[in-house]
Amino acid sequence: MKLTKLAASFFAVASIVLSAGIASAQTAVTNGTNGTNGNYIGAGVAVGATSGGQGNDEAQIGGNIQGRYAVPNAPVSLRGSVLYGGDAAAIMPIVTYDAPIAKNTNVYFGGGYSFVTDEGQKTPLGNRNSPVITLGVESEVSKNVIAYGDTKWGIDAYRNSDADAVSFQAGLGYRF
After folding, report:
1. What integer pLDDT is reported at residue 95 of this predicted model?
2. What pTM value is reported for the model?
3. Running DSSP on this structure, what letter comes out for residue 75?
4. Given phi > 0 = left and psi -120 to 50 = alpha, else beta, which region is 29?
């Protein structure tokens, strides 16, 4: 069941990424949008929206620290995210595909892995290590200030449960 869910997720992600690439290429050519390609580090709030149905895995509200390194001359970024709150933190390296949608604004979509610092203890994104898929938006709202928001989906992210975890993040970053 888990393998089937992971395969279905992979194919859904691949189709969205490929169609987004086609759409963003057409958008960039036709209306001159050029998104943002800046690197940044930011902080904000993280809100867990799910529970695994066990005793120590209820939804958590906490904080996030996120960063982005835009790969030069490529529509991809390397991102790092830490979601904290509850009794542990979830640390995530993530690779995303970035598509410009307006001046200084991107949507991004990608995947990575969540490493929970103390497995079995609650975080905004479950209580065990798991694959993660993310979808978000980022925009440079003033000189060197980036606003971002995203959703993270942790696949099979709870111990003693096959439940998935979902968390919503928002914050402000410093562009460098």
Report:
1. 98
2. 0.80
3. S
4. alpha
